[in-house]
């Protein structure tokens, strides 16, 4: 056991060496992204509070984190069950939960928001948090598609506001886009970049342009795949196979859309089609809208473009 603890604390001290000034992180939203962000922040030595709307949701988020940590631990401590359990236990002990976002951000260095992709809901949340958080607390949004400035302007701390855009699944994807608005101070930006590094991610700097870097390229690609399917040019399965074997993508566009969530994909498309009515590729998709109306959100509900076994 002592050996295990030594191995684990050595691993932690490596991340501590590049640890930013941010030690305590509050993650709002315990869904796909929030639970991943909370997991990786805790696994790299940060104390974390994860917030969601109900205790039930939070219990599911913690179970998802525990499962994902188990997969990470298996790789990290191959044949050592005790070391695996110790790793999972240590990381889990750094994550507490709360259903009250305002209370959870009273004493924290950073709030990372990962709630539903809706501007009004995000703005309302941040206005409430702004009044409760300490002066030094930095706010960040994990939004996929909304302008950071439109969210930040709901607060009086735009100099301490930025975008921290993680990728799904957060424990596996190595990138974080760090987004600056003109008001973001250099110190805030530096602390966000340092946090990304402390979380063992590669960071890239982005201006607050639609979709930042990855989604500005990924969303048109994925929507063109949906148009191909709607036109009957090829089946979803063949388009996915073609992009995996012909372009080297780990998932085809339909597998990826189901993985991201068709509800989130629709939120992004609704926002962009309203904002950019003249851009053909952002036009709403009848097929996507139909699937979402039928409650087929992808993997999370057991069906999207494909059907999945419910685990
Ligand atoms: C139209 C608008 C839409 C726009 C949406 C925008 C959304 C955004 O804002 C931005 C985004 O995040 S876009 C999504 C970006 N993510 C991707 O592109 C993921 C692509 N897929 C992959 O990389 C792999 O399939 C993946 C890594 C996921 C899984 O790998 P495999 O396919 O090989 O499957 P597995 O065999 O299950 O896993 C391989 C290894 O990875 C480990 N692993 C997977 N998931 C994990 C998780 N959640 N937690 C911990 N470990 C995990 C797994 O253990 C396995 O490792 P080995 O033991 O070595 O095999
Ligand atoms: N799904 C993906 O692949 C990616 C999503 N994003 C972005 O991350 C954010 C979250 O997306 P997901 O995690 O996929 O969504 P999700 O639907 O899995 O999770 C959202 C969570 O937020 C909670 N929530 C909603 N309103 C709340 C509030 N006012 N207070 C506290 N909790 C609240 C919900 O109960 C839910 O558990 C969105 O802005 C999305 O665009 C960013 C990168 C990738």
TrEMBL record:
Residue ranges occupied by any 3-hydroxyacyl-CoA dehydrogenase NAD binding domain in the UniProt entry: 24-209
Top-level taxon: Eukaryota
GO MF, one annotated term: (3S)-3-hydroxyacyl-CoA dehydrogenase (NAD+) activity
All residue ranges annotated as the 3-hydroxyacyl-CoA dehydrogenase C-terminal domain in the record: 211-308
Binding site for CoA: 68, 75, 144
The keyword Acetylation belongs to this UniProt entry's keyword annotation: yes
Catalytically driven reaction(s): (3S)-hydroxydecanoyl-CoA + NAD(+) = 3-oxodecanoyl-CoA + NADH + H(+); (3S)-hydroxyhexadecanoyl-CoA + NAD(+) = 3-oxohexadecanoyl-CoA + NADH + H(+); (3S)-3-hydroxybutanoyl-CoA + NAD(+) = acetoacetyl-CoA + NADH + H(+); a (3S)-3-hydroxyacyl-CoA + NAD(+) = a 3-oxoacyl-CoA + NADH + H(+)
Family: Belongs to the 3-hydroxyacyl-CoA dehydrogenase family.
Function: Mitochondrial fatty acid beta-oxidation enzyme that catalyzes the third step of the beta-oxidation cycle for medium and short-chain 3-hydroxy fatty acyl-CoAs (C4 to C10). Plays a role in the control of insulin secretion by inhibiting the activation of glutamate dehydrogenase 1 (GLUD1), an enzyme that has an important role in regulating amino acid-induced insulin secretion. Plays a role in the maintenance of normal spermatogenesis through the reduction of fatty acid accumulation in the testes.
Name the record gives this protein: Hydroxyacyl-coenzyme A dehydrogenase, mitochondrial
């Amino acid at each position: 056991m002592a050996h295990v603890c030594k191995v684990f604390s050595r691993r932690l001290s490596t991340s501590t060496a590049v640890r930013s000034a941010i030690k305590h992180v509050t993650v709002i939203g315990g869904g796909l992204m929030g639970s991943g962000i909370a997991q990786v922040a805790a696994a790299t030595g940060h104390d974390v509070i994860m917030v969601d709307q109900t205790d039930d949701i939070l219990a599911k988020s913690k179970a998802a984190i525990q499962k994902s940590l188990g997969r990470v631990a298996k790789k990290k401590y191959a044949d050592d069950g005790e070391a695996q359990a110790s790793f999972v236990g240590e990381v889990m002990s750094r994550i507490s939960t709360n259903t009250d976002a305002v209370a959870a951000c009273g004493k924290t260095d950073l709030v990372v928001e990962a709630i539903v992709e809706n501007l009004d809901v995000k703005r309302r949340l941040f206005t409430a948090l702004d009044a409760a958080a300490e002066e030094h607390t930095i706010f960040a949004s994990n939004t996929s598609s909304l302008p950071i400035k439109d969210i930040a302007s709901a607060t009086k701390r735009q100099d301490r506001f930025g975008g921290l855009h993680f990728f799904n699944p957060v424990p596996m994807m190595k990138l974080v886009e760090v987004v600056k608005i003109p008001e973001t101070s250099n110190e805030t930006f530096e602390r966000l970049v340092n946090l990304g590094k402390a979380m063992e991610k590669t960071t890239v700097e982005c201006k607050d342009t639609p979709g930042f870097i990855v989604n500005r390229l990924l969303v048109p690609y994925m929507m063109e795949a949906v148009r191909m399917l709607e036109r009957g040019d090829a089946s979803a399965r063949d388009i996915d196979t073609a992009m995996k074997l012909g372009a080297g993508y780990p998932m085809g566009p339909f597998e990826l859309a189901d993985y991201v969530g068709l509800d989130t994909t629709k939120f992004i498309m609704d926002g962009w089609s309203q904002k950019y009515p003249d851009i053909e590729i952002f036009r709403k998709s009848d097929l996507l809208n139909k699937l979402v109306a039928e409650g087929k959100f992808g993997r999370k509900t057991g069906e999207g473009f494909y059907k999945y076994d419910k685990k």
